[in-house]
Amino acid sequence: MDITEAILKVANNYGHLHGYILTEEGALDAAKSKFWGNLAASIKHKRETGKSLVIPYVKYILPMFEDNEEVEKHGVPKVEIDMHFGNPRLSIRTNKFDFCCLTFNRDTSRFTESQAWGDRGIELALSIKMQIENNLKQGLDEHISQKRTE
Predict the structure, then answer these.
(1) Residue 60: per-residue pLDDT
(2) What is the predicted pLDDT for the residue at 147?
């Protein structure tokens, strides 16, 4: 399991567990990004590998009334995977408007940065980071186990 699969698994699990509705899924191509950092990462990746820089994408939302003051201030609660300088990033905004986003290096799978706010944002970020890292470890353990049986 690579880092994008580990993040996708957490995003899907969180979305389903907390009643979010899947609104979009597919793939993000860094070459089609509006953010210059993703475009630069795409060019570098293409030069080095000959391949396009693409990661899986999902977006879940928690429907709320648009005239809600908190929604206007903080945005609609959501779970979304996007890209930051070509690296996968998972953002979560809860129904209580706590927020976290975590970015992982696409090549090394290492955690690189996080942002959090709200009363439980830091706690949420730590929990999500641990889930992603557990998915990576589980995937590695399965890979090692499979190699031993071959």
Answers:
(1) 97
(2) 58
